Amino acid sequence: MIDPLHFESFMRDYQNMVFTTAFRLVGNASEAEDIAQEVFLKAYEHFEDLSLSPTAGGWLKTVTRNLSLNHLTRYRARWRFFSEMRSEEGDDGGGYEADIPAPDTHGQAMDNADQKQILEAALQKLPAAQRVPLVLYHFENLSYEEIAEKLKVSLGKVKTDIHRGRETLRRKLTPHLADAVC
Amino acid sequence: MDRHTDNQWEEVLDRELKTLPDRQAPSTLLPRVMAAVQAKARLPWWRRAWRTWPPAAQILSLLLFSGLLGLVTWVAMHGWSAESAAHATRLLSDWTAPISRFWSCLTALANALVLVSKTANGYALLGAGIFCMAMYLSCVGLGTVFYRVASNK
After folding, report:
1. Would you call B25 and A18 a contact, using CB atoms and an 8 Å cutoff?
2. Has the ipTM of the complex gone over 0.85?
């Protein structure tokens, strides 16, 4: 019999990590919360093993990643055609920058927290076609080949999308992250 | 930034991204999960996942399933004769009687389409195909707009 208090404590330890992983992949807080709920319900079913496992965090991360990718495949495939059209138009669009706070114009270095906030916002503003492989590469430490396999796209497309995503971030973040990158 | 090559930028970006802190999970997540867990716990055992059933029920269900599978296999191998096939066909036709009218309409429509395709020229068929495709794309487009409006994206 699972002790609810024990499970609650387990959830408190991992809920931010699970939610963040899902949020970075699906790009929507409400959908990420639904996925996180599904992950913890699965964790509850395996809690007798998980509660003693030193790799519980890795298990949760893998399940979150897979459920998020399933979610994206299930609910976004039908809109991808239009989304990609929009994202290609918006790649160089000025509207993108409007959501990123302006750099400090008084010569004072921005503090670290501001930079992180800007980077997170810029990442979330990337089109899904670029954000998802970029997140899988940099946060989930998957190789290009693994990403291509997971997303069921060609290796070339993965490389192109990640490159475009990085270039978009470079263009948008250079003024903000000057201290960090120069 | 121009002096940074792609590789340097990749390294910088990787380092910066990996230092990003986790987001705060919504405060509603924990109560939602605990409520769902409690709701699951209230379900009778036979409505839960099979591997959580009591061992006796698991064994019994396995035996029943194996027996059923064996029966189906035996009937398929030995019990199938011309008489039983005719009886099964009669039963099937009785069951499908209500949809036979629908089937005849469908057949008539298919025959009409075949006639049209034989008599109409290629341009007319191409035009009809383009019209159907345009209608389909309009539906998908409108669906996309409604989806984006509804989900506020």
Report:
1. yes
2. no
